Amino acid sequence: MNWISNYVRPKINSLFSRREVPENLWTKCPECGTMLFHRELADNLMVCTNCDHHMAITPRERFAGLFDGGVYTQVKVPAPVVDPLNFKDQKRYPDRMKAAQKTTGEEEAMLVVEGEIGRTPIVAAAQDFSFMAGSMGMYVGNAIIAAAQRAVELKRPLVLFSAAGGARMQEGILSLMQMPRTTVAVQMLKEAGLPYIVVLTHPTTGGVTASYAMLGDVHIAEPNALICFAGPRVIEQTIREKLPDGFQRAEYLLDHGMLDMVTHRTAMRGELITLIRMLSGLPPEIKGDLPAPALGPDAEATPELPDAAKASPDPASPAAKPEGEPAKAKGPAPKSGEKPADTTTGTAADSGADTAADTGADTKGSPA
Ligand SMILES: [Zn+2]
Asked: What's the pLDDT band for 306 if we cut at 50, 70, 90?
């Protein structure tokens, strides 16, 4: 009897319970308590379909939704010294690292990749809050430097998604050294004239907001993200005053001039594409399914669509339309164009002067 109740029954129970617990099929929204089906939640980029609460998302999940076709290549990050201080609190630092690596399946708290979004090549880095609270240690410093170097090498913009509880205290002063190091990395981008866009996600705090997360050309935040150096609790205890509602949240910071915009996660990709293309001097993204990108040399001189279409209906070949991108390598063209002024006036305002000269030549040629 003992053997049955103590050994056999638990075994049987465990077998059955294991089968009937579909635990990871449903996720409970921490904000409104709605049970959300995991696939639906993943399709909505981990945003609650009921209350729009933005849940934590891993770098890989984010990149899968961000890059064209979910395709990206990981950029190698040099590994730093392991546990230089021989640090120990309740657990040894290397043990904590191993535990975090096991639960997340990631090497460290930041993932650097390269790929294309809306056919715009970029380098991207994302911090993983589930890995030791996304804390900034030497690896994260190395990752940002690697990302900046790769961006400079490929002449691409860098997009960084921040999420951090601050510096990694297990690395002591060495983690704080990452603030100047990453600042220098950002400076490399600026010197190369490359856009650096920061997307601040919940929560971005501590030394991260005192360095690379606040040095972007554009700062976008996800709704209701906590973004601060010292948290609201600490401030409240220090100044002994009640803080206003939504203090240090994304919308509050937008109102007070700390951010450029607050963007819903599902609209983030489109917003980033628009911004990056604008900052890089590229024409707007072409929406819809496109055929293979390369179209041959004649596509290169194709002018911007609207003016060409209304000026001369016949030469505006529909096949060449989507290929707006490479229309920039026409340096001396506008000056040498000897056409009269009337043709250029219509186009010069909204498109580049070089393409305007081209359309001028076309429109002059074809009707006459
Ligand atoms: Zn919810």
From this structure: very low
pLDDT surpassing 70 at residue 363: no
DSSP conformation class of 47: B
Q: Report pTM.
A: 0.73
Positions of E strands within 39-131:
72-74, 110-117, 120-127
Q: How far apart are CA 296 and CA 114, in angstroms?
A: 26
CA-wise closest residue to 103 among 136, 134, 130, 143: 130
> How far is ligand 1, taken at its centre, from the CA of residue 250, in Å?
18
CB 203 within 8 A of CB 185: no
Ligand 1 geometric centre to CA of 264 (Å): 14
Return the bridge partners of 116, or none.
Answer: 121
Rg (CA), the chain: 26
* CB count in 10 Å sphere of residue 31: 14
Å from CA of 46 to ligand 1 middle: 10
Predicted confidence at residue 360, as pLDDT, reads 38
| Structure confidence at residue 286 (pLDDT) | 82
Q: Is the dihedral of CA 129, 130, 134, 140 positive or negative?
A: negative
What's the gap in Å between 169 CA and the centre of ligand 1?
33
Q: How many CA atoms lie within 13 A of 319 on its CB side?
A: 6
**Gap from CA of 108 to ligand 1 centroid (Å):** 29
**pLDDT surpasses 50 at 344:** no
Between CA 269 and CA 174 the distance in angstroms is 34
Q: What is the pLDDT of residue 287?
A: 78
